[in-house]
Design brief:
The complex is a heterotrimer of chains A (182), B (394) and C (101).
Chain A: E1 2-9, H1 14-27, E2 31-36, E3 46-54, E4 69-72, E5 92-96, H2 101-105, E6 112-116, H3 118-125, H4 132-143, H5 148-158, H6 161-177, E7 179-180
Chain B: E1 4-8, H1 9-19, E2 24-27, H2 34-45, E3 52-55, H3 59-72, E4 76-80, H4 82-87, H5 89-97, E5 103-108, H6 122-126, E6 133-136, H7 140-155, E7 163-168, E8 176-180, H8 184-190, H9 215-247, E9 254-257, E10 264-268, H10 272-285, E11 290-295, E12 297-299, H11 303-310, E13 315-320, H12 331-340, E14 348-353, H13 363-377, E15 387-389
Parallel strand pairs in B: 2-3, 2-4, 4-5, 5-7, 6-7, 10-11, 10-13, 13-14, 14-15
Antiparallel strand pairs in B: 1-8, 6-12, 9-11
Chain C: E1 39-43, H1 53-57, E2 63-65, E3 71-73, H2 83-87, E4 93-97
Antiparallel strand pairs in C: 1-4, 2-3
The chains are: A alpha/beta (182), B alpha/beta (394), C mainly beta (101).
Chain lengths: 182, 394, 101
């Protein structure tokens, strides 16, 4: 079973990203869970969302304490939140950052790092810095938990028409541009 | 084999209510039930569900409106949680005593104070004596299936009682997971439109409801309800079997997991059963023979079935998310214990209160409970009054 | 008014006041929501006409009126919502991106 934790701010779409990936996994015949940290959320406040993926029914229903993967949508969060808390040994951190990969690696020497400038991709394609689907693309590059096609299908169901197409474009671009540092 | 679809637990509930083709929805939103009623209002608004959606000003009114509509013969639905259920309290008794087959989902939420939107089982437990049939569900599939079965059971001539379908707030409302959807044809076949009783409120054949109960008759009135609730159990089983034959998913009063050779059995209701099962797997890897009994039916309380199942175990550890203040621990613990009282040979029954107000119960905490229960029955540890609060920072 | 009223994240029973009554008023001052910001407002004093509309509209009470009548952003609490540049009649306020650390 793979456990994932997403870090974002209320309104950035961390919860939506976790949901879309869960949809993709379930449509592939896997089992998955997606859930936010339970409670009220405000725009701008740090939020967390979670996933579990497995090939058999998932019975555990407590919170995720030791994720295999952590995804960070907003690197400003690194100032105040220990995003790698509980991350399993050989875990992966997927980070949205404008910094060069080697520079991002400095505080995360013992962690497998995947970086992407999701903000730039979002600004290019959408015109606004909504990075969640781009980060979903980077997540798939980092983990291969679902096929890209499944993710495209799930995102097109969630966002109809032109919005769906733009999101597919962002996923594709993020997938291509994400750098797996290891 | 039907395909599994991704769905949020709340929306699984809404979907079941829609497919049951209810006539009246009367509800007031309250976290964490809001998604259920929001989705239902969308269905009504876009025409997918032909029902009357009554926006009431409180939960007390929500249940009161259901009462009236159900008395006329409508298939009704409402949903609530926590303080909302508490606000409905007096009307719950009226619904049951008037034999109205209303189905309500309760997204179990902690009772104030402090103000808590998070899940525990104290809300339904505080109203457990109202005369409703009460079932506890674990996940999306169960919530969906049990709601459909609830209507069929409630509306049976031999039952005519309201049903509360309970599931943990947030853990079983705000999680997206997968389930199989029964087809609409199968649902329609299983659950035809409600047969309106001859005594329903209708101008063509008027009746009077809400009579006074003089001392001379109140005893018999109350006993009539008690008998109805007791007798409903066999019909519940019939309904579950019928549903199982159609869908392949059979439900039962309780569900054991690895209990055959267990020395300690954890007994629980709701979503934490899943986490407990993982704890059992880990305990068994460490050589501890433990099992889980997931209880589904809480009212009418299946004491006979529990006596028969539990009698030969060494120790039963009841873990629940509620307690009776100043009483003897959790409600479930008390009733399990009393069920076994007369047995010459019986397990030691211990009570553990955890998960209050959304405090997460971890896999290792369940492992500790099982080990502690064994220590107590082996004389290595003592527990005053046979129940305790877990997770407390003194 | 000091930090003594602030509870730990995980208090013990003994550390919780009776009925969870919060004994000190105005405790939201201890919650420095400035951390939430991705963009911060900057006021150009040359364009500012001291109308005070930004101070009126700020939903977080994060604009300070100085004794001289100037307006300043309280960066401890400003969440970067962007309402003040919207309301400023002389466009004296711009949102500047917080640098990534």
């Amino acid at each position: 079973m793979i456990e994932v934790r997403w870090h974002g701010r209320g309104g950035q779409g961390a919860v939506t990203a976790a949901e879309i990936i869960a949809h993709a996994a379930i449509n592939e015949g896997k089992y998955a869970q997606a859930f936010p940290s339970f409670g009220p959320e405000r725009r701008g406040a740090p939020v967390v969302a979670f996933n579990r993926f497995d090939d058999r029914p998932i019975w555990v229903r407590s919170e995720v304490y030791e994720p295999n993967v952590v995804v960070v949508l907003d690197s400003n969060l690194l100032k105040n939140v220990n995003v790698v808390e509980g991350l399993k040994p050989n875990g992966i951190l997927v980070l949205n950052t404008i910094k060069k990969p080697e520079e991002s690696k400095k505080p995360f020497l013992n962690v497998s790092l995947v970086t992407v400038n999701a903000k730039k991709i979002a600004l290019d394609v959408l015109g606004i810095p909504i990075v969640n689907t781009a980060m979903a693309g980077a997540f798939v590059k980092a983990t291969n938990i679902v096929k890209l096609d499944s993710l495209y299908e799930a995102v097109k169901k969630r966002f109809r028409g032109k919005a769906g197409e733009r999101n597919v474009k962002m996923i594709k671009q993020a997938y291509e541009e994400a750098v797996v540092l290891g | 084999m039907a395909k599994r679809i991704p769905i949020e637990d709340s929306y699984a509930a809404s979907l079941a209510v829609k497919m049951a083709n209810v006539d009246v929805i009367s509800a007031y939103p309250i976290t964490p039930q809001t998604h259920i009623v929001e989705r239902l209002s969308e269905y009504v608004s876009n025409g997918e569900l032909n029902a009357e959606y009554i926006n009431v000003e409180s939960e007390h009114s929500a249940m009161s409106a259901c009462l009236g509509a159900s008395a006329v013969g409508a298939r009704c639905f409402t949903a609530t949680a926590g303080q909302g259920l508490a606000l409905m309290h007096e009307v719950l008794f009226i619904a049951a005593g008037n034999r109205l087959p209303i189905v309500m989902t309760v997204a179990n939420r902690s009772l104030s104070p402090n103000i808590s939107i998070w899940g525990d089982q104290s809300d339904m437990m505080a109203s457990k004596d109202c005369g409703w049939i009460q079932i506890y569900c674990e996940d999306a599939q169960e919530i969906f299936d049990i709601i459909l079965c609830a209507y069929k059971n409630a509306e049976d001539d031999r039952v005519l009682l309201p049903v509360a379908v309970n599931f943990d707030g947030f853990y079983a409302t705000h999680v997206i997971e997968s389930m199989v959807v029964t087809s609409q044809e199968e649902v329609d076949d299983f659950l035809p439109p409600r047969k309106i009783p001859s005594f329903a409120l209708h101008p063509d054949h008027p009746t009077s409801w809400g009579a006074v109960g003089f001392p001379a008759i109140q005893t018999e009135i109350k006993k009539q309800l008690e008998d109805a609730l007791r007798n409903s159990k066999s019909i519940m089983n019939e309904v579950w079997n019928q549903y199982g034959r159609i869908t392949g998913r059979y439900y039962d009063i309780f569900e054991p997991y690895k209990t055959e050779d267990a020395e300690v059995v954890l007994l629980l209701m709701g979503s934490s059963c899943g986490t407990a099962r993982i704890a059992i797997d880990r305990l068994r890897e460490k050589g501890v023979k433990a099992g889980v009994l997931k209880l589904r039916l809480f009212r009418p309380f299946p004491d006979k079935e529990l006596r028969s199942f539990l009698k030969d175990y060494r120790v039963v550890a009841v873990v629940e998310k509620d307690f009776s203040a100043g009483g003897l621990g959790g409600h479930l613990f008390s009733e399990v214990r009393t069920s076994l009282y007369n047995l010459k040979q019986k397990p030691k029954v211990l009570g553990f209160i955890a998960g209050l107000g959304g405090r997460d119960i971890r896999i290792d905490e369940f492992e500790s409970v099982a080990k502690k229960a064994l220590n107590i029955v082996n004389g290595k540890e003592k527990m005053e009054r046979d129940f305790m609060f877990l997770q407390v920072r003194e | 008014m000091g930090e003594e009223c602030k509870l730990k994240d995980k208090p013990t029973i003994k550390e919780l006041p009776i009925a969870s009554i919060i004994m000190t008023p105005a405790t939201s001052r201890f919650y420095k929501t400035g951390d939430w910001r991705s963009f911060r407002p900057e006021i150009d004093k040359n364009k500012c006409i001291r109308c005070g509309l930004c101070w009126v509209y700020c939903p977080a009470d994060a604009i300070i009126r100085t004794e001289e009548g100037d307006y300043e952003i309280d960066l401890d609490y400003c969440k970067g919502c962007g309402v003040c540049p919207e309301e400023c009649p002389t466009k004296a306020i711009t949102m500047v991106e917080e640098a990534e650390v």
